[in-house]
Design goal:
The chain is mainly alpha-helical and 100 residues long. It has 2 domains: 66 residues; 30 residues, no CATH class. Helices cover 49% and strands 4% of the residues. The chain has a two-stranded antiparallel sheet. A hairpin with a 2-residue loop joins β1 and β2. 0% of the residues are buried. This is DUF3311 domain-containing protein. Keywords: Membrane, Transmembrane, Transmembrane helix.
């Protein structure tokens, strides 16, 4: 899929996520499942879906929507402690509050 196709796909995905975030079609429903109202189960499932989709978005298309060029030469790596060493800073710089 080309760049424009992926952008349209992600934008439409986020529009749908926002549109169905509030379960307006469940208003007035007093159905209870496992002791909790059905609308609460909707929110639990919806938040799970949102977290999975956002994870996929950040792993594959974040640079497209944010206007970043993946080939701009900025690399992010992590050392053994898990601290970021992007833009030339060292892990020690990050521990001490930033680049110095």
């Amino acid at each position: 899929m080309d760049r424009l196709g992926r952008t349209v796909l992600w934008i439409s995905t986020f529009v749908l996520l926002v549109a169905f975030a509030v379960p307006w079609f469940l208003w007035g429903t007093d159905t209870v499942v496992a002791g909790l109202p059905i609308w609460l189960w909707w929110h639990i499932g919806w938040l799970g879906l949102c977290s999975v989709l956002f994870h996929r978005f950040t792993r594959g298309s974040w640079d497209r929507i944010m206007g970043l060029d993946p080939g701009d030469g900025v690399r992010t790596t992590t050392d053994r402690s898990g601290l970021s060493t992007d833009r030339g800073g060292t892990a020690a710089d990050r521990r001490n509050g930033g680049d110095r």
